[in-house]
Design goal:
About 85% of the residues lie in helices and about 0% in strands. The protein has helices at about 5-35, 40-45, 45-70, 75, 80-90, 95-105, 105-115, 125-175, 185-230.
């Protein structure tokens, strides 16, 4: 399916944002490493923990772009699909509406389909079915963006782990030299400590911002779709005018 222009703009913004962070890391890392002349050299000097953080940043970028595209309002509840279901409801063709929901699975149709299966029962039964399915689908969608929260928490802790490892190397150099360590030997451990801290924060900060944005947009969409479904089944409420 061809992405809409809005999807492309959002994905491009996310890509540019994380690219800016990566560029900043590449620019500032040489000063910390003292000898670094390339991004690859910087990443190598950050040690194994630093490389893992970089891999984590790639995963975070992929998750952000995927969620930016798939968690859009028009993807979760396509306006044309809503209009079709409403038209079938107005004509009393509930079986056709059910078949449409089964053939076009999305957040809206799953909730609406749960309500349609209870048509003919008391309104309270229909309402409960809609509520339960809505909660289930909402949890499923929140789990998708939950990976970003995990990454934003793990990245700085990995950076801290690398910092501790780098300082241990520096102190080991002092101990092995009897307190007369060469500054160049100390610089290796200190450089690794600072680089991993910087990389961890460089991943955590934009990932946290992306998580907050996606979570707020998802909550807004869930509320809007819930209101649409509620209005759709309002006709089954007793004494409905």
């Amino acid at each position: 399916m061809i992405l809409s222009q809005t999807s492309r703009r959002v994905a491009n913004k996310a890509t540019r944002a994380l690219s800016t962070v990566a560029a900043a890391a590449i620019i500032s890392a040489p000063a910390l490493a003292q000898e670094s002349s390339s991004a690859l050299d910087v990443f190598t000097k950050s040690g194994g923990i630093g490389i893992l953080i970089i891999v984590l940043s790639v995963i975070a970028l992929a998750v952000i772009i995927e969620n930016m595209v798939t968690l859009k309002r028009d993807k979760l509840a396509p306006p044309d699909l809503i209009d079709e279901v409403q038209a079938l409801f107005d004509e009393g063709q509930y079986q056709e509406a059910m078949e449409l929901c089964e053939n076009e699975p999305c957040f809206f149709t799953r909730i609406a389909g749960a309500g349609i299966t209870k048509v003919g029962h008391q309104f309270e039964v229909i309402e409960q079915s809609i509520t339960e399915m809505g909660d289930e689908e909402s949890i499923r969608l929140h789990q998708k963006i939950g990976w970003l929260a995990l990454i934003s928490n793990v990245a700085p802790m990995m950076g801290l782990l690398g910092t501790v490892g780098g300082m241990i190397k520096a102190f080991n150099a002092i101990a092995s030299s009897g307190g007369q360590a060469n500054p160049a030997e100390l610089a290796v451990g200190i450089s690794e400590a600072l680089l991993t801290t910087m990389l961890g924060l460089s991943v955590a900060i934009p990932t946290t911002a992306a998580f907050a944005f996606l979570r707020n947009r998802l909550v807004k969409t869930v509320i809007e779709v819930g209101a649409i479904v509620e209005d759709l089944f309002e006709r089954f409420r007793p004494n409905h005018a």
